[in-house]
């Protein structure tokens, strides 16, 4: 069940943290499996972190200001 006290920014932050953890796990396993050539895994990790940060920043910037009224559901708008 969703926590009513969590804001959209909290949810975005948690998703970002989960994505970073997944990227790190993948990077770590790649380095363990190929310790002689960590370069490609490191490059992929850095690209993934940059992308995750960009997506997080875009999502947070797209949030409405505090106190903004929620939009009406589509079915309420469509009833004309």
List the helices and strands and how they pair.
Elements (H helix, E strand, L loop, with lengths): L7 H26 L5 H23 L12 H5 L2
Summary keywords:
elongated, mainly alpha, 80 residues
Notes on the protein architecture:
Helix 1 (8-33) runs antiparallel to helix 2. The protein is built from 3 helices and no strands. By secondary structure, the chain is mainly α. It has helices at 8-33, 39-61, 74-78.
Poorly predicted runs of 5 or more residues: none
Helix content: 55-70%
Largest sheet: none
Question: Count of DSSP helices?
Answer: 3
**Rounded average pLDDT:** 85
List the helices and strands in order.
HHH
Instruction: Identify the overall geometry.
Output: elongated
The total beta strand count reads 0
Question: Measured on Cα atoms, how large is the radius of gyration?
Answer: 19 Å
C-alpha end-to-end distance: 34 Å
Structural class of the secondary structure composition? mainly alpha
Report strand %.
under 5%
Outline:
This protein is 68% helix and 0% strand. By secondary structure, it is mainly α.
């Amino acid at each position: 069940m969703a926590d009513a006290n969590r804001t959209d920014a909290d949810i975005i932050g948690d998703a970002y943290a989960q994505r970073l953890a997944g990227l790190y796990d993948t990077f770590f396993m790649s380095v363990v499996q190929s310790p002689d050539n960590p370069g490609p895994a490191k490059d992929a990790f850095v690209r993934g972190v940059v992308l995750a940060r960009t997506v997080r920043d875009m999502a947070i910037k797209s949030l409405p200001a505090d106190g903004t009224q929620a939009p009406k559901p589509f079915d309420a708008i469509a009833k004309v």
